[in-house]
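In practice, a research group might receive sequence data for several interacting partners and want a quick structural hypothesis before committing to experiments. The following worked case mirrors that situation: the sequences arrive first, and a predicted assembly follows.
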Amino acid sequence: MKTYTKYLWFNTPTRRAVVHITEQVREAVRESGVKEGLCLVSAMHLTASVLIQDNESGLHEDMWQWLERLAPYRPDYKHHRTGEDNADAHLKNLLTHLQVVLPITNGDLDLGPWQEIFYFEYDGQRPKRVVVKIIGE
Amino acid sequence: MKTYTKYLWFNTPTRRAVVHITEQVREAVRESGVKEGLCLVSAMHLTASVLIQDNESGLHEDMWQWLERLAPYRPDYKHHRTGEDNADAHLKNLLTHLQVVLPITNGDLDLGPWQEIFYFEYDGQRPKRVVVKIIGE
Amino acid sequence: MKTYTKYLWFNTPTRRAVVHITEQVREAVRESGVKEGLCLVSAMHLTASVLIQDNESGLHEDMWQWLERLAPYRPDYKHHRTGEDNADAHLKNLLTHLQVVLPITNGDLDLGPWQEIFYFEYDGQRPKRVVVKIIGE
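A structural hypothesis for the assembly, expressed as tokens:
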């Protein structure tokens, strides 16, 4: 049995951003030497998500509008009494979940035809991490 | 250590559909020979979800109304500029997540008393896949 | 390869409740003896969630208001024809997902700086379980 851990760092120039990370995760799988197993990709912060979607810019625009409709930025969240102003980013993280678990088959990510891995940043402009944890043989 | 991979195919006669798949997943666990481990069940498309809920038809009606309220079908999504008309299905997938990870204990799925596994199809009428990846001993 | 299974029981005095469970999960990791691996923490009911968030009471108030806005309590859900009155709890579970998978690195949970594990109860006042399943070496 093998395990492998890798941390991906992101520091996006804008507060909200999308980073396409399929290749970085695929590279971690190659580095691990695991041929059959599972690959967890999980945000280590509470204001960003790792998710699987289509790499289509129109859809990404729809997703941002939808996120803002369901988990809007507002000044008056109670979390902001701590001095923060990112409660909406926490709610957006809850809505889109923080992580995905991917199968590894024949030494590669076993993704569907249009499945790509994205890091959705809801409160960036500072260094943040994603953990990739691989387990298998 | 053992690993096992199985693909389940679905081609639902209606665009939106619910398929109860607990038995198919349970069968994959038996085929794997794994007695203790983890079982990932994950949609390989971006417009369907694998989720755990109660097998109660009234609740399923509530779920569909809720999905339509939070991620409604509309003609004017930006994704539709590509010729697609299924942006709502992508948002419904985001809302209900694409996958679940289940414990395997004593050679069987370790589910709670009312937990059943469902494939929720948001854009069917074509062949689509779910991957079952099992890892354990 | 090692596996370890533990069930955590909760019987909250109020219908809705938050229980901070990071230490209980960490204890299970220690008991397992696993140094590198994965730890699934998953609700075994359909009306509660295990999630990762900040341990900040204002944020938790924001989360409850948000949950009630997106998945409100209402008397007229179709699920209630069965005699139940908890359809909103099922929808809240769908919204916040039932589970998380956590990396284990160097014998401990590999969490980000503010990540804490919570059990969100949407329909309590009765005994309910969470399964912790650990796999690794």
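Before designing any experiment, note the following. The helical segments of chain A are 22-32, 57-70, 87-96. Residues 4 and 31 of chain A are 8 Å apart (CA to CA).
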